């Protein structure tokens, strides 16, 4: 072995030591509570996954297998549980930075750290959304109490049905009218320019 190989081994050993560091019995409280950088990165990616991809995680997603590289646009993906799982795993690999891919498979705590951070962020986000419901729907003359009541109330509220595009009028679009500057005229130039969102 030459010096370059020894340096590589030293750097690999140092990285492994940092990732798997277990504080000794005499460790102070700060060391015991300090998250390592890998855990922090996993938590950050879990929060991003919640906000940008999925509000819920498929239970069997972890422990993660190697990337199955399935085509996310293939409709056959939705026909079986295995197809859904492979599609979700491919999507997860696409959103997680490449330098964490190996850790997804080798780091045994990856799944539990990811799921825990995802769940914690989901409860935080739900409270924020619920608290903002009044401000979000006030311009559309929808009472925030509508969403805390019985489901039957929503079926009878004309303003709510219009925002959900379930009023039976006009062509269905997958974009909610609330995302546009003028919900009555959903034009490309007004997309994501709702006064509430801006």
Give an overview of the whole structure.
The protein has 198 residues and is mainly α. The chain is built from eight helices and no strands. It folds into two domains: 105 residues, no CATH class; 50 residues, no CATH class. Helix content is 50%, strand content 0%. The N and C termini lie far apart (60 Å).
Q: Any key phrases for this structure?
A:
2 domains; 8 helices; mainly alpha; 198 residues
* Structural domain count: 2
Radius of gyration: 23 Å
Helix fraction, binned, reads: 40-55%
Q: How would you sum up the global shape?
A: elongated
| SSE string | HHHHHHHH
What would the average pLDDT be, to the nearest integer?
75
Number of helices: 8
Runs in which pLDDT lies below 50 for 5 or more consecutive residues are none
Could you tell me the number of beta strands? Answer: 0
Distance between the termini: 60 Å
Classify the secondary structure makeup into a structural class. mainly alpha
Brief summary:
With 198 residues, the chain is mostly helical.
Write the layout of secondary structure elements.
Layout: H1 3-19, H2 29-33, H3 37-52, H4 81-95, H5 101-106, H6 110-137, H7 151-156, H8 158-163
Helix pairs in contact: 3-6
């Amino acid at each position: 072995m030459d010096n370059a190989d020894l340096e590589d081994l030293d750097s690999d050993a140092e990285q492994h030591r940092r990732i798997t560091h277990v504080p000794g019995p005499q460790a102070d409280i700060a060391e015991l509570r300090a998250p390592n950088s890998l855990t922090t990165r996993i938590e950050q990616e879990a929060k991003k996954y919640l906000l940008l991809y999925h509000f819920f995680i498929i239970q069997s997603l972890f422990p993660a297998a190697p990337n199955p590289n399935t085509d996310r646009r293939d409709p056959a993906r939705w026909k079986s549980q295995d197809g859904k799982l492979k599609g979700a795993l491919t999507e997860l690999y696409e959103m997680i930075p490449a330098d964490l891919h190996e850790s997804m498979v080798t780091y045994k705590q990856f799944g539990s750290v990811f799921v825990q951070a995802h769940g914690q962020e989901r409860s935080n986000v739900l409270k924020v959304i619920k608290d903002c419901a009044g401000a979000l729907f006030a311009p559309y003359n929808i009472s925030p109490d509508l969403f805390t009541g019985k489901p039957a109330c929503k079926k009878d509220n004309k303003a709510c049905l219009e925002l959900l595009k379930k009023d039976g009028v006009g062509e269905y679009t997958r974009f909610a009218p609330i995302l546009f500057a003028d919900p009555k005229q959903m034009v490309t130039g007004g997309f994501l320019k709702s006064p509430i969102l801006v």
